[in-house]
Amino acid sequence: MIITRRTSLKALGAGALWTTLGPGFAAASVETDRRFVFIFLRGGMDGLSAVPAYGDPQFGAARGPLADGPPGAGTDFDALKLDGLFALNPDLKFMHTLFTQGELTVFHATCHDYRDRSHFDAQDSFDRGSIDKTVKTGWLNRALVHLPARWSTDRENVALGLGPTLPLSLRGDAQVGSWSPPTAPQASADTMERLARLYRADERLGPLLASGLSTESMGNAMGGMDDMGGKGFGTAVDFIQYAKAAATFLAAADGPRIVTIDYGNWDSHSGQNDRNIPGPENGNYAGRFPEMYLGLDRGLAALREGLGPDIWSRTAVMLVTEFGRTVKINGTQGTDHGTGGAAFLLGGAVQGGRIIADWPGLRDSDLLDGRDLRPTTDLRAGVKGVLVDHLGLDEALMATAIFPGSQDVAPLTGLIRV
Amino acid sequence: MSLDRAAIATTRFGLGARPGEIDAASADPKAWLLAQLDGPYVPPAAFDGFASTAAHRENYFYRYAEIGYGLQQAQKAAEARGDTAEAERLAQAISRSLAGYVTWVAENLMIEYGARTNVALTTDASFRERLVRFWSNHLVVPAIKQQSSVIAGAYEREVIRPHVAGRFADMLKASAQNPAMLVFLDNHVSIGPNSVYGRQSGKGLNENLAREILELHTMGVEGGYTQDDVIALAKGITGWSTWPVFEEIGRLSAGAKSRGEPPGSFIFYADWQEPGAQTLLGRTYAHTGLARGEAMLDDLAHRPETARYLAFKLARHFSADDPDPALVRRLADVYLAHDTDLGEMTRALVETEEVWAQAGSKLKQPDDYAISCLRSLGVDFGPIPPMKLYNFETYAWRDSLWAWLAKDTFNLLPDKSPDLWTEPYQRLGYSIAALYRDVAAMGQSPLNAPGPQGWYDRWSDWSGADSMLKRVEWSLALATRHQDKVEDARSFLEGTLGALASSGLKTEVGRAATRDQGIGLVLAGPDFQRR
Predict the structure, then answer these.
(1) Among the ranges given (A181-185, A266-270, B229-233), the one the predictor scored with the smallest mean pLDDT
(2) Chain A: closest CA distance from residue B347 (Å)
(3) Among A63, B15, B194, B425, which one is most buried in terms of CB atoms within 10 A?
(4) What is the total count of domains within chain A?
(5) pLDDT bucket at A392, cuts 50 / 70 / 90
């Protein structure tokens, strides 16, 4: 199968082929052996549900029935203790283990610089790395443009977007790959060659097909992707599958070193903490949000397992969302669009076991506009810290090329074990 | 000349030429388009017998409540009196009923998708059908929630189709008063905190629908409204709901059918309405009852920000990713001058030469691409039986549907058997479900946009490397399986792309070694990806 693709790749004039795979190729330098996974939790993950602040005297009153049992309470769903103030959602057991092992850092009361409450504007702002809509490319793509040269050695795409569409963060001048599970039988080499001639003449579409073919042949050559034929409705299931695929790609000797995954549907306006209790009240949600956390936790566990201990020790995974949600419950047992929320940085390369938060409090007078958790830590400081210390980018680029206009936001240091 | 324009009319404005369509449009391509906007709305026959939103809601809640809630109460009672055997039997009945319903929901979505696709594949008015899809995406109800999934198809029939050449004010009102939209964006349970029922129950506002009406349906995110306006509109439409809602399950089971309204339809609960005048965008609305929210929506539809936002989106879809501001202004002016008439705005679009001249500037979205491929071959699913409503008593609905769904209509059954991940699709059979799966793999799951913003509409939103590969592989397989529909690949190219085919494509198709290769080069090639 790989042979047919090689032929068509040549016809397309694609770059390096994913043909020589194996341990012999893995002798690159330590720096290029680092891995970075960026996961965007789209829809506005509720920070106070992911990382509840049980130690805050206002928490119980603010959250009422949306709060799970406090750590050690002995309910079916006790939150998992982090420190005297914070805990993790009861469904994030693997992440809790990482925290106790010093491989998970939690950011709380955090947000980027977007302050309105539109999902789509907020996501686009984060993806662009700027609230300025005239910026047309993504922050991560611009980071690729400035990556130290050692990163791109012997690989066609240093970054790969997992999913049927490429997130805005990865769009721009640097070439990137994208991948989703195969669905159709492969066409004959002869037809592909003829088609390649047509596409080669097409400036806009030609490079896309060349890149798609190249990544697909890599997936084929590696095997292990056979159980991924098609996309289900359940985004939790999708996320676990994509996390497994991410591990496979990142573990390949000449595979990508940076992978993005989108994990959507966090918009919990109603029935936010409904668990699987059969009945008409819950039939419509059936534990939808607890499932989101379970999927997140299991996907991350699958990622570590797939990478293996050696690569995991050189991996950092950043998880962000576009904004947090209102502190108080709305009229429908959910929460509405807010501002401050939670984010995570985890992996074997992470100096973890810490919570980075300048806690603003939950009294009415503490809240932003009387409703949202006040953001006190700029999330971009965390992302910058990872770009500088993990990917080796020049710090001077952070406030110019990567997050234009963010001079006031210094990169956080010490996030990565150096 | 008119042949060139006929190819543009069918490809850029329509959904891709069916066999013979370019010829049919060539006499007067512009008139061919404009005629599709005329005349009274006639529902497509393919939807005969399909259930309305009200019928689905009635089934979901009324029967669910009667049977599901009844079973649950009986189970609790059995537990209370220590009859564990009976409690266990009832628990199993509940879980069987739920599991059956979940499967039914998935099959219903496939039936709705199949019927909607069939209309797109067979219609002679494909420009109008593109407009249906465009406005459906504007006031979108995706299938992401189980409750809205059930009625996403019915919503399009009731709210979008009748109004694509009518007044936007009417479409907006129909949308905000349709159970599908109310349920999708949570307004059906938004209760004025100071209303009679709000004080009694302690329940409160949900601002979700109000925010999206302002941000996505009317003024746009840059329309200049504030958080206070969101709250004012949310209060303005408190009590806009559907009967019954789950807040009422208890009352319902106690025989609240006596309310007298047809179950499942839109209802205004006066005792949920937030009392007092509300100020929205500087205007005070002192009306009581349903009139308050309706006046707010009508004013929103007539605002210049709304006109600009709608005009921009329409121009982006038909003209270019970054449309000429003068075109946007002109369309917005027509909209406002004609009392929010979308037909008039669309006519102005068709009359604009620049929109014709930019043919090829848009990358087809995956659903659009798949439909244009299938139209070019003249294939469709054949008649699709309406979905029967789920029977909560017997957990049965299939009858003959099962065998029919399993038909390999497009002859695309994959060689290897589907694995665990695709198992739900295997149960659904191949034809409709597999097309759905394949289009989803290209990056767009039909009837299930990623959120209330709908699908984005720029080239860069659809130009992923993987998506392009999925398109190519799918259409090459399609060409192989359907080569019997085509006599000669060169005349096929002429009939489907006409004057829009590049000389390179003509050369390659002329040199093709086999018929299916020739068809494949047309469908999978770069020219066919554009409109």
Answers:
(1) A181-185
(2) 31
(3) B15
(4) 1
(5) very high
> Which residue did the predictor score with more confidence, B390 or A409?
A409
Nearest CA in chain B to A235: B144
CB B421 within 8 A of CB A232: yes
Q: Which residue has the higher pLDDT, B91 or B206?
A: B206
The full set of domain ranges for chain B reads: 55-301, 366-529
Give the CATH number, domain containing residue A47.
Answer: 3.40.720
Which A residues, 348 through 367, put their C-beta within 8 Å of a C-beta on chain B? none
Of A190, A216, A334, the CB nearest to B469: A216
| Contact between residue B278 and residue B235 where contact means Cβ atoms under 8 Å apart | yes
Is A414 within a domain?
no
Q: Which residues of B touch A212 (CB under 8 A)?
A: 464-470
The 10s digit of each residue's pLDDT in A249-282 is 999 888 899 999 999 888 888 778 877 544 333 3
> Among A28-37, A99-108, A300-309, B416-425, whose mean pLDDT is lowest?
B416-425
Q: Which residues pair with A81 in a beta bridge?
A: A87
Contact B238, B273 (CB under 8 A): yes
In whole angstroms, give the CA distance from residue B491 to residue B507.
13
Yes or no, beta carbons of A194 and B512 under 8 Å apart: yes
Output the pTM of the full model. Answer: 0.73
The larger pLDDT score, comparing residue B411 to residue A155, is at: A155
Residue recorded with tokens 């409540």 = B65
Q: Is B186 within 8 Å of chain A by CB?
A: yes
- Which of B185, B421, B500 is the best mutation test for A, with the most CBs of A within 10 A? B421
- What is the distance between the alpha carbons of residues B299 and B119, in angstroms, rounded to a whole number? 34
Q: What per-residue confidence (pLDDT) applies to A192?
A: 85
Among partner residues B94, B221, B473, which is closest to A278 by beta-carbon distance?
B94
Report residue A205 as tokens: 């579409």
Phi-psi region of A103 (alpha: psi -120 to 50; beta: other; left: phi over 0): alpha
A214 occurs within a structural domain: no
* Residues 411-430 of chain B whose Cβ lies under 8 A from any Cβ of chain A: 414-416, 418-422, 424-425
Residue B231 forms contact with A (CB below 8 Å):
no
Least confident of A90-99, A128-137, A161-170, B212-221: A161-170
